[in-house]
Structure formats: C-alpha cells, structure tokens
Amino acid sequence: MTVGVISDTHGLLRREALDALRGSDAILHAGDIGSRDVLEGLGELAPVFAVRGNTDAARWARTLHGVQALTFESTCIYLLHDLHQLDLDPAVAGINAVVHGHSHRPTMEWKAGVLYFNPGSAGPRRFKLPVTVGQFVIEGASLKPEIIDIL
C-alpha cells in the first residue's frame, strides 16, 4: 500500500505535487490546506484524510479535526498539524508514525520505534526551504518513508 503525504499547501496545489502523489492508495494532508479546492484536487487521486492547520480558519475547514488516528494494514498513523501539540506518547499508544507539518521543513526521524515524519511544504516556497511531499510504502508491519523533492 502506498500512502501519499502532503502538508502546508496554503491554497496552492502544484501539478508537480499531484504527479508525485499519483498512484497513492490514500493521501494524508497535515494541515494548512488553505482551500477546499486542494482537498478536492487530491481527492481525484485517492481518498484524502486531512487535519486542520493553524491557518485553516474558513468555514469549509471547521469540519476538519485537529488530529486523526488512522490504520493502514497494521500500521497506525497519528496525523496532526503542529508536533508541539502532540499530547500523548505515541510509543505507549501503539502508534507507528506521527505525521505533522507546520514547520515547512521536511524531516524523517525514528524515536523509540516511532517514525516522526514531516513531508515539508508543497505550497508557496518559504525562505530557501525545499518544496516537497512524502510517501509511505506499507507492507504488513513494514513502513518505508520517503521525502520527494518536487521543485
């Protein structure tokens, strides 16, 4: 199973992001979506699971939760926007990966057997940070993460 991961689009859904996420079985959006059109565009590729970011204050975003716990095959993924708002111990809770955004910096780090994954920002370029998305390949209990430069 392939899970595409995107964050911090801020209303901009780049063709390059769509190309990189094409073929995903599901797509996670870690907030600061910026427009319902972004979710609709991603939804043309695969089912989308999204959380509200700190800039998602419009009426359409009010139905989005701040966090989601999702299971794909036997892998549990905890999705939120700002890692500083994580209010549980993922290892104790049986979570395999924490997906977050907010910083616009792509990161992939394992701590206590849990993957902390930020796909970076696929929206407007910020400072000199790269424009990226992410992907997980899930096979049973195996989780293989990747960060993909799109610009």
| Regions with little confidence, pLDDT below 50 for 5+ residues | none
Shape: globular
What is the helix content? 10-25%
Query: How many domains comprise the coordinates?
Result: 1
Could you give a short description of this structure?
The protein is mostly beta strands.
Topology:
Layout (H helix, E strand, L loop, with lengths): L1 E5 L8 H7 L4 E4 L6 H8 L4 E3 L16 E6 L2 E6 L9 H4 L3 E3 L7 E5 L2 E5 L13 E8 L2 E8 L2
What does this structure look like?
This protein is mostly beta strands and 151 residues long. It has a single domain (2-149), classed as Metallo-dependent phosphatases (Purple Acid Phosphatase, chain A, domain 2). 13% of the residues lie in helices and 35% in strands. The chain contains 3 helices and 10 strands. A 5-stranded mixed β-sheet has the order 3-2-1-9-10, with helices on one face. A 5-stranded mixed β-sheet has the order 4-5-6-8-7, with no helix packed on it. It is globular.
